[in-house]
Amino acid sequence: MKKLILICILVAFNACKNKGDQNENTKTASEEQKKPNIVVIYVDDLGYGDVGFNGATEIKTPNLDKLANEGVRFNNGYATSATCTPSRYALLTGRYPWREKKAKILPGTAPLIIGTEQMTLPKMLKEKGYYTGIVGKWHLGLGSGNVNWNERVSPGPNEVGFDYSYIMAATQDRVPTVYIENGDVVGLDPNDPIEVNYRKNFEGEPTGKKNPELLKLKWHHGHNSSIVNGIPRIGYMKGGKTALWRDEDMADTFLKGAQEYVTKHKNKPFFLYYAMQQPHVPRTPHERFVGKSGLGPRGDVILEADWCIGEFVKTLEKEGLLENTLIVFTSDNGPVLNDGYYDDAVEKLGNHTPAGPFRGGKYSLFEAGTHVPFFTYWKGTIKPFTSDALVSQVDVLASLAKLVGSDVTVQDSEELLDVFLGENAKGREELIIEATTRTAFRQGDWVMIPPYKGRKIVTSVNIETANSKKFQLYNLKEDIGQQNNLAETNKEKLKEMLLSFEKIRGKDYNNTEKLKLK
Ligand code: NG6
Ligand code: CA
Description:
The protein contains 9 helices and 20 strands. The longest helix is centred in the first third of the chain and has 33 residues, at 2-34. The chain is α/β, with parallel strands linked by helices.
């Protein structure tokens, strides 16, 4: 009898224990499930008005429109800057780029500008168990000066938080024109080493300037150094013949990289920074897309980018990941037409308005420089919503930290997770925007641009800088195109804006001119 009781107790205990284990397992599994994959799709120089979901009618972007319209579409989404490097710096570090002097358009030979000790978006996610990867454009510098491209290039993305990297070093128009995977140039023949120099050419090497007969794309300004694939570039390069990219295949190469990354890492929460190159110059659509938009190569590569995103989402769907993946889509800066090549962007523009309703463009402190397409999408979790909330790419880090349960905070990154998920429409109160070395301030519906010396128009690209000897003050609610400067008539508002701006930016933001409110 005693024995029987003991057996009963043992059986009951084991049953309980198993149940406990099971609960434990179930909890862990569902907790794991709760950790969504995160994909940031970042395009290059795409304007607010370049996409159907923001009103474009001359260019069709059905794949983007579907995601945007089923996700949270931001009417007030910003890149921190009107050029690439600083915007990317802010996205990945959660810090305003004007805090880092080196965060300016970098040559292909620039050293890494993110400190290896610095907190970054991929680092934060990695700490929370994510596998992290980048496929696409980097443009944040590599190495620590005098890079030898024939050895492992380091530090780079893999040293600031990415487990995997497949990148182009700088831009499509800058050398070196090769892909780099985890620090190694892809397809490099050791007997044909790569040399790169931004100051002087290598003896006997043709250039865009001297050898126009070798060009399939003509340069308009800049872009007259080494020739690769019939396209003249910024900077000089020699060697590495087997590793050189064919520009027309770049979209497919990055897409394939992004798809393979997903398929390979689908069993663990992953983060992918899919940094597409379109529609930055040189605009080189794959033959499949040539002539398809009727707007020239710039339109064609936008169609190509849209197609790539459609294909990429199909992969997520096929792998059964779409309902467990948060997608953030945005652009690093606003649009530009002629950015250095004769590629018909101006001539074939027709009725298309890349900047949408905004004034300016890439390089500009006017809205079109930084006010960009922006949406989040998460099938089954995010409900379709058009948000007026003010959000910046600098906020992605803190907001994703909240999503994954990280307590990481960074100086300028505001935690706006519920805004990004469309559960709340109250975004930032204020925001500093940047164009080259100049900064301006948005607060509520108002934008204040301090006086800056320098050219009013960048003539080569035909874009207004927003430089003026006078303060500028605009109310975007009534004047989205920034036509009515209210600085003279609303001095109270101007004063209030300047004070708030200086609180964040400090007083010495304009070292070319002493600012005084008269
Ligand atoms: C400019 C280039 C421009 C583009 C830009 C960087 C000239 C004359 N212009 O210096 O073509 O490459 O840098 O663009 O060289 S960004 O989107 O990467 O910031
Ligand atoms: Ca850009």
